[in-house]
């Protein structure tokens, strides 16, 4: 295994994804040393609130909230402040690291951003947990409004490679996503930027996506493994490649590409990495508890227990 672990090239990335499974333990040991150097043995646990659900104008093929999706999901415009606060209290009572607030949709009116900002401001007055938003494309003025309300980090994923992107979405472009991220960085946000594995992409697409993410230099990199949802265009996606070994290689590559970032093993961990959590944490230092926008997940208490049993400590970030 002769890779440049400090600064992997595209060829190194492809070799890591193609590594024979027998050589995975050796890779995991090397990656663990890098994870330990930057993150110790800590695991950040995040809670995700779905603050607006469904009725999106876009056609992202994996998404239950897309315009083209027939998935049977709850749809609502903006979650009640009480529910947002309830999740905020759960995050602080359980000492979780971050409260992520996800909204369906790609564009928001100033009125909607004002409403959301005022709810977040009230939430920040009650809980001290760092808040992230996952929220489509913003104008610089809208971004500043959220920043003033106390949002410190914004999630905007690239999802896959530039080359594969037109196969999963045709209503906006990869370049628009990158431009939005650059604008957010200019406004002073931390960036959470990752992707989804299992969208029918090649290994080269995974490598290329992670190279694009490395160039962005985000503070957090969520890696999702596709959970095909009935009613979406990818409901019958071929997920046979998503073996635990392959998922671990992707997480290892994410750590090597962005060694200082939070590497979050997000959707799919409960399915594809069940029983392999210790190895997952050799690369990843962050996870969600209590599910994803439209998919169920492990409860907060079970997640905390799992982290401890895998030999890691879960930690609290300060705002
Ligand atoms: S991923 Fe976001 S932009 Fe794409 S369809 Fe779903 S909610 Fe809309």
Helix % is: 40-55%
CATH architecture: Alpha-Beta Barrel
Which sequence of SSEs, written as H and E, runs from N to C?
HHEHEHEHEHHEEHEHEHHEHE
Cofactors, ions and other ligands in the entry: iron/sulfur cluster
What's the total number of strands?
A: 10
Catalogue the unreliable spans. Answer: none
Shape: globular
- SS summary, helix count: 12
Q: Over the alpha carbons, how many angstroms does the gyration radius reach?
A: 18 Å
Number of domains: 1
Biggest sheet overview = 10 strands, parallel
Strand residue content: 15-25%
**Structural class by secondary-structure content:** alpha/beta
Query: What is the CATH superfamily?
Result: Aldolase class I
Describe the structure in your own words:
The chain is of the alpha/beta class. The protein has a single domain, classed as Aldolase class I (TIM Barrel, Alpha-Beta Barrel), CATH 3.20.20.70. The protein is 41% helix and 15% strand. Strands 1, 2, 3, 4, 5, 6, 7, 8, 9 and 10 form a ten-stranded parallel β-sheet that branches. The longest helix has 17 residues, at 110-126. The termini are far apart. The protein binds iron/sulfur cluster.
How would you summarize this macromolecular structure in one to three sentences?
With 319 residues, the protein is α/β, with parallel strands linked by helices. The protein has helices spanning 10-17, 24-39, 81-93, 110-126, 140-149, 165-168, 174-187, 203-216, 244-257, 269-272, 277-283, 300-309; strands spanning 42-52, 98-103, 131-134, 151-155, 190-192, 195-197, 220-225, 262-265, 286-289, 313-315. The protein starts with 9 loop residues before the first helix and ends with a strand.
